[in-house]
UniProtKB/TrEMBL annotation:
The keyword Kinase does not apply. Keywords: Oxidoreductase. PANTHER family: ALDEHYDE DEHYDROGENASE-RELATED (PTHR11699). It comes from Pseudonocardia xishanensis. The active site is at residue 273. This is Aldehyde dehydrogenase DhaS. Coiled coil: none annotated. The gene is dhaS. Belongs to the aldehyde dehydrogenase family. SUPFAM superfamilies: ALDH-like. The keyword Cell membrane does not apply.
Amino acid sequence: MTLAAETSLHSDVREFLSRPGRLLIDGQWVDAASGRTFSTEDPATGGVLVEVAHGEAEDIDRAVRAARKAFEDSPWSRMKANQRERLIWRIGDLLTERAEVFGQLESLDNGKSAGIAQVVDVGWAADVFRYYAGWATKIEGKTVNVSMPFAPEGAQFHAYTLREPLGVCGQIVPWNFPLLMAAWKIAPALAAGNTVVLKPAEQTPLTALLLGELFEEAGFPPGVVNIVTGFGDAGAALSAHNDVDKVAFTGSTEVGKLIVQAAGGNLKKVSLELGGKSPNVVFADADFDIAVPGSLNAWLFNHGQSCVAGTRLFVEDRIFDKFTQAVADAASQVKIGPGLDPTSQLGPLVSKEQFDKVSRYLSEGLADGARALTGGKRFGDDGYFIEPTVFVDVKPEFSIVREEIFGPVVAALPFNAEEGVTAAANQSDFGLAAGIWTRDISKAHRTARSLRAGSVWINQYNGFDTAMPFGGFKQSGWGRELGAESVELYTQTKAVNVAL
Ligand code: NAP
Ligand code: MG
């Protein structure tokens, strides 16, 4: 084990890392059928953290069978809604109690700041479990006032709908918010009474496994939540499995399209949270002192490894030079270092692969003729650190303007009219999120309506809440997670009609 800051680790994190990660199937911690393992690494050093079971199609199949059994015939399938509520709530409490441990583990596996992970990733995951715990007792159908035009005169009916769980849900999550994305998916699925097979990202399997221990501790029946660590082939097996009723995926648009194809075999339900290249629009009348740090956070939060990152920064031409320079100055002052160092504000990218990909975009941007106001290269010689980079002198056709980089890189473009900027901002295959900064409320709301994006944040960025639906227009996805919408993603309607 090579760790960035070994001495500051919580004893529970050390203990967790002292044993290999195994698969959670039917309430048992088991090895992969093949006996194979893979290593997960600390991106601050490139050193190996621990070995984890390498789950494949056979393991996915075992997990799906366990989930099916738990769904059809188990204490879970007979459980009352308020009992499910208490179990799910307990996960929220356990996460809160262990926030430091989860935060450190997330930091080690992903590279993000342990302090931020504790508050954002773990704190919010706990909130998500509590929010959906409350939903378990509030999933309702309705009575319907039917006319039954073909029925004999005088016949009476009692018609109503039920909202029922879908069954076995396959859930595939990425590495950028490993625990949080698992929470977004597992919590509503359980609230509705489904069972789950979770496939964490190969880069960041650890917090999902620790979360798996909490389900045992909280008293969930075996097989309700199953966790299979592994690679893309395990995800592919899950999305193609004929006994899976729904697949929920967060990750790249490219893999999202593969999931849709794989799901075609049994026409399982599909929901997708995919990539983005979100516009962040700063009008000249914005509050400069709030818009500068807000716009920095928009693209730099989580090292830019965020699907909603505001990486196309549109700035009104009158303030373009001053504003972009202020953002670049703020970016150049960000302290870079390992996520376990409490003074560091920007950690390493998640993996060598991601580091190489972002480095390629930096070279491409410079070769195309973009100018870096700050950054433009790697930081230090060890680990996968990249300097925050602000590109100006860019054209809409540059790859750094069109494609999702998933790193600490922003491209700034000037504009001179409200209509022009919304047209330019909408010129993208993606439509996940957008930011608007202005003091003019009419302009703010007009612009919000014109932007083709699933979430619009005004005078803030990353304005998420568990109660607010989240998802993408265009190629950024199908369906909405969070809020009441996610309960709909995990239930289906049954229409019952009784002749009285
Ligand atoms: P990815 O391949 O889309 O990975 C997301 C999840 O899907 C992982 O659990 C992955 O497993 C799994 N997976 C891979 N191939 C699959 C398949 N054929 N069928 C089913 N599941 C499959 O993303 P990535 O390779 O980690 O990152 C590539 C790029 O995607 C990033 O650079 C970024 O641009 C984008 N991305 C977007 C988001 C987002 O939130 N929108 C998140 C992550 C990445 P493995 O990890 O084992 O491959
Ligand atoms: Mg890792």
